[in-house]
Design brief:
430 residues; alpha/beta; UDP-n-acetylglucosamine1-carboxyvinyl-transferase, Chain; four-stranded mixed β-sheet; 32% helix; globular; binds uridine-diphosphate-N-acetylglucosamine
Length: 430
């Protein structure tokens, strides 16, 4: 298992290219279960999570081949298989996104319940509610969601939960609705760009979805979907992470392959903090500031401030000139990075669903542990600006969602080394 050793203090400068969106690529790959023929996806990032889903699809009779560059070819070979087992699903929650397409195309799905994770409980009640509305019989047996339906019938589905809409839930319902008989209405649908990208892909395959990018989706069912070539949107969270890197190191980074309108809430907060953001056609230039101003942030479903950028902003605001408050309205327990940032000299207190961040003059390098994907990004950002050396263990979390992250940072002037963490292997092998 690898660790990162970061020598802090470099001001990052130059240009970096953002990879394709992980959270768009995952449901789009799952949607290939619905297609007849060879799908070619472009701009698919090379990430651990993508490999896991490729393996799950392989066991479901779907051939997934990597092509040169970031292309991928996907084709259904055998559509008799319906089981996604625990070993793989437990490695990545988003594997639940095979449930909708399996049910719609193969009339049966048995997918292991993903379980909780360090960022919270993460139920799938809305997925089950939505799929049941199509007339499917859904039960939970021995840790598996078992769904069966000879035919899916259109429905009116409200997808609001305690914490707002659901991204993967909307994806699952949408992938079932496209083959359901009649017109389905999905209310309070998630309108994240990744959901819109999936809907765009499905429409290119022949689906009839209206209201893309809004909270109300109208889906007229069709009999079949064809395979197409499709390019995945750039990863807005990777782009946002580089924006914070420019801000926290007082650097000057041009982020290429970046759709600025997917990051409106993030850019708005960066500007309030005092950071300069120059939006261009397919890129964004971000220039840091000598004085980081404190701000208040609440995470919300899109177009609100993304929960996936909360940890990175904790790192940035820990160096602000004053007190900031970040309230987490999507995953109230998503604050595992706070204790680690405090080990680096930050002064952050968790108060219920909020982090109260009292800005400090500097962070100092320390040994810290990455607990989850975005928390690890936050620790890398803190390590970039900390005085001295930071060692981050369990960086496999970051490899789940950021392609060649240390190479990209090092090209901008960072000093990050990936090293084999022998201690961790011994501990984890016990
Ligand atoms: C997706 C993203 C993740 C991001 C999150 C919120 C993927 C692969 N992952 O996760 O990076 O942090 O959106 O933007 O796209 N909920 C329920 N019942 C359900 C489903 C969800 O109560 O059936 C709750 C969740 O616990 C959470 C909130 O709704 O509090 C939002 O979750 P959801 O949008 O479903 O997150 P994911 O799709 O799992």
């Amino acid at each position: 298992m690898d660790k990162f050793v970061i020598a802090g203090g470099a001001r990052l400068k130059g240009a970096v290219r953002v990879s394709g969106s992980k959270n768009a690529a995952l449901p789009i790959m799952a949607a290939c279960i619905l297609a007849q023929g060879k799908t070619v996806l472009k701009n698919v990032p090379r990430l651990f999570d993508i490999e896991i889903l490729s393996e799950i699809l392989g066991k479901l009779g779907v051939s997934v081949k990597r092509l040169p560059n970031s292309d991928m070819e996907i084709q259904v070979i055998d559509d008799s298989k319906c089981v996604a087992d625990y070993d793989l699903v437990s490695k990545m929650r988003a594997s639940i996104c095979v449930l909708g397409p399996l049910l719609a195309k193969r009339h049966e799905a048995k997918v292991s319940l993903p379980g909780g994770c360090v960022i919270g409980v993460r139920p799938i009640d809305l997925h089950i509610k939505g799929l049941s509305a199509f007339g499917a019989n859904i039960t939970v047996e021995h840790g598996y969601v078992v769904a069966r339906a000879k035919k899916l019938k259109s429905a009116e589905i409200y997808l609001g939960g305690m914490f707002g809409s659901t991204v993967t839930g909307t994806a699952n319902i949408l992938m079932a609705a496209v083959l359901a008989e009649g017109t389905t209405i999905i209310e309070n649908a998630a309108c994240e760009p990744e959901v819109a990208d999936l809907a765009g892909f499905l429409n290119k395959m022949g689906a009839k979805i209206k209201g893309i990018g809004t909270h109300k989706l109208l889906v007229k069912g069709v009999r079949r979907l064809k395979a197409v070539t499709y390019s995945i949107i750039p990863d807005r969270i990777e782009a946002g992470t580089f924006m914070v890197a420019a801000a926290v190191t007082n650097g000057n980074i041009t982020i290429e392959n970046c759709i600025a309108e997917h990051l409106t809430a993030v850019i708005d907060k960066l500007r309030e903090i005092g950071v300069t953001v120059n939006k261009k056609k397919n890129s964004c230039q971000v220039i840091g500031t000598d004085r980081i101003k404190p701000v208040y942030i609440s995470t919300l479903p899109y177009p609100g401030f993304p929960t996936d950028m909360q940890a990175q902003f904790c790192s940035l605001l820990s160096l602000a000139d004053g007190i900031s408050v970040i309230t987490e309205r999507v995953y109230p327990d998503r604050f595992m990075h706070v204790a680690e940032l405090n080990r680096m000299g930050a002064n952050i207190k968790k108060e219920g669903e909020s982090a109260v961040i009292v800005g400090v003059k500097k962070l100092s390098g320390a040994q810290v542990i990455a607990s989850d994907l975005r928390a690890s990004a936050a620790l890398v950002l803190a390590g970039l600006v900390a005085e001295g050396q930071t060692e981050i263990t369990r960086v496999y979390h970051i490899d789940r969602g950021y392609e060649k992250i240390e190479e990209k940072f090092n090209k901008l002037g960072a000093r990050i080394q990936r090293k084999l963490d022998k201690k961790l292997i011994v501990v984890e092998e016990k």
